[in-house]
Amino acid sequence: MVRLVRESFAVVEPQADHVAETFYANLFSIAPEIRELFPLNMQVQRSRFLRALVHIVQMIDRPDELVPFLRQLGRDHRKFGVVSRHYEPLGMALLAAIKRYAGEAWTVEVEHAWAEAYTIVARAMLDAAAADDGPAWWSATLVSHERRARDLAIVRLQPDHPVPYQPGQYLSVEIPQRPRLWRYLSPATPPRSDGLLEFHVRAVPSGWVSRAIVAEAQVGDVWRIGPAMGRLRVDRTSGRDVVMIAGGTGLAPMRAIIEDLAQWGENPHVHLFYGGRVRADLYDLGHLLAIAATNPWLTVVPVLESEADPATMQQGTLADVVTRYGAWADRDVLVSGSPAMIRSTVSRMLVAGTPLDRISYDPFTVD
Fold it and tell me: Per residue in 147-158, is it b (16+ CB within 10 Å) or e — as a string?
């Protein structure tokens, strides 16, 4: 099943955008009532679907990683109003889309393999959704909006009830300015006793939600917060030191983990590479250096693609600088940033000799 799914997906992957468009067209034709669960603008949703599909295909023979990911997806989909009866048309739409673009690679055996794979995926998601007795989402009020730059804001929200998450995980949010356009944001602090959430948001050119958060969100707005997802974490008992690689606001989950570690007396050594294009991108460098000054297990390496001061910063892309130090083969590696940054950094590290099973990143943290 694994071989057939991967070989057939390799055929359709060059046309992945068309596969996503066809999948949703099929789905809304088979089950028109599902359309109202999605936003009018489907661009990000299609991109998110493709990332999930690629991630599942990559992990299909690694159940220890795949099943937790699927269970998180199942719990997360509750906030959309997805219920058990929706999974059958989802499967029909997916197989029809793959078949259309697989051409001669689509055989009876391939169809059976995809049907088996989808059954595994759907069962894990359904079981997790059924077992979750918590709310599908939480309400939270915006209590602080700090504009750090033209395109960057630090926002803080007070949920009606504490939102459970682990440092390094991310949460989906829906804002009143963009209903039904859920986006993923990583809390920049570990869970607090008062439940306050802090997010670092950069407006990106095609980011309907990020631009609205930075430019339009106001104190008093009520957001909806979905359940936690993600697998970025530091295992203090593993005996391995850690490399963190963060680009721009991809710093947020790393910052939350570092602040959580700072409450302990002994930690693995953490080497944080914090990068951006220009100096303004390193908006939280002072805070990180202050933590490092009192925690000798933390080393912070600022990285700039331009304007670097050789005395205090490394120059180049994060991929350039990290691999200059070697393969980091004995470290756990955590990567967070834009999809392009994650792709280039992980690819360069694999070429340099970093073992794949030592590298962790999340597929949904940036849209």
Answer: eeeebbbbbbbe
Indicate the residue type of 231.
Answer: R
Look at strands 298-304 and 270-276 and give their pairing.
parallel
CATH fold of 138-225 reads Elongation Factor Tu (Ef-tu); domain 3 (2.40.30)
| Backbone angles phi and psi of 191, in degrees to 5 | -55, 135
Q: Residue 306's closest CA among 288, 324, 281?
A: 281
Specify the CATH number of the domain 242-360.
3.40.50.80
pTM of the model: 0.81
Contact 126, 162 (CB under 8 A): no
Judge whether 27 and 133 are in contact, CB under 8 Å.
Answer: no
Amino acid at 323: T
Could you report the per-residue pLDDT of 233-243, keeping only the tens digit for each?
999 989 999 99
pLDDT at 4 over 90: yes
Cα–Cα distance measured from residue 337 to residue 244, given in angstroms and rounded to the nearest whole number: 11
For residue 53, what are the contacts with CB-CB under 8 A and spacing of at least 6? Answer: 9
State how far the Cα of 321 lies from the Cα of 274, in Å rounded to an integer.
10
Q: What is the pLDDT of residue 320?
A: 94
Domains 2-131 and 242-360 fall in the same CATH topology: no
Element (H, E) at 144: strand 138-149
Fold assignment, 2-131:
Globin-like (1.10.490)
Q: Indicate the domain borders of the chain.
A: 2-131, 138-225, 242-360
Cβ contact 207:147 at 8 Å: no
Contact 178, 247 (CB under 8 A): no
Higher pLDDT: 272 or 85? It is: 272
Instruction: Supply the pLDDT for residue 180.
Output: 85
The contacts found for 10-15 with CB under 8 angstroms, 24 or more apart, are 11/101, 11/102, 11/103, 11/105, 12/98, 12/101, 12/102, 13/54, 15/101
